[in-house]
Design a protein that fits this description.
alpha+beta; Jelly Rolls; 6-stranded antiparallel sheet; 3-stranded antiparallel sheet; 7 helices; globular
Amino acid sequence: MGKYRVLTDEHVRSFLDKGYLVIRGALDPAQAQPWIDRAYARLGYSPTDPATWAKDIVWLDHESHALIRDMSPAAWGALLDVVGGEARLEPEVYDMPNTGHFTSVNSFEWSDAFIVNFRRGADQPWQPPSPATKGWHKDGSYFRHFLDSREQALLTIVCWSDMRHQGGGTFVAPDSVRIIARLLAAHPEGIPAGGFDFAAIAAQCTQFEEVTGQAGDFVILHPFMLHASSQNVLGLPRFMSNPAIILKEPMQFNRPNPDDFSLLERATLHYLGLERLDFRAQHAREAVWWASGRPAVPAAA
């Protein structure tokens, strides 16, 4: 796969076959520790005293930021490999208050908008992923969904701490990518954010996995991946984040030169069983967000 800077043949096959890939050891855990220490201070919790953990799980807004390329060249290179290069990323920050636990989206940065699972579900026996798992969903509560949507072009997971088996890993349904791709292809008018029947989609799936990893691992998932949070019966705090990646323009599935397809576009066509598709949205692209006027990458001093 000479066209890729970071991705190996195995990574590409995983993205095409399972809908996600994992870059192991993308981030030095030592870089995460100051942000984790600050998160405990922000919450007023002690990392060594579970009695201070007032909530089983918390969603933090961002306070600190850093460019992905500086924190993790491997993660940054992998992202560019999947989307087709930096020129295809949205160059502005988008503000999105009241649409989630973070208030803006910047494709070029990571932040400490952590989801911290301290012990959610520890009072119940462990349940592996299945159609009956509560909370299956596709991300994107702030826009109308089309097959080629740019607003959340990738679902990503940064493991700021270990994400252990039965310790709050993310549940995924790999075959949901194909189901949702076909659903969106059949609805060029788009589907409102609240218009998906996720329970019905999960009921059609037969593949379910628990994504785990070590501190510093980085997971890139297709945006159509159905996923859900899981129990942390271990009671060991798990810090992760889900930074969104925005494209400058919608995906294109009918590029004149097939070599110009990004891996993301190739994968979407693959899940449709097609080599190309002249997709055209048949409804206005609606989103509850707006460009902030701030560049995603600060100007050089």
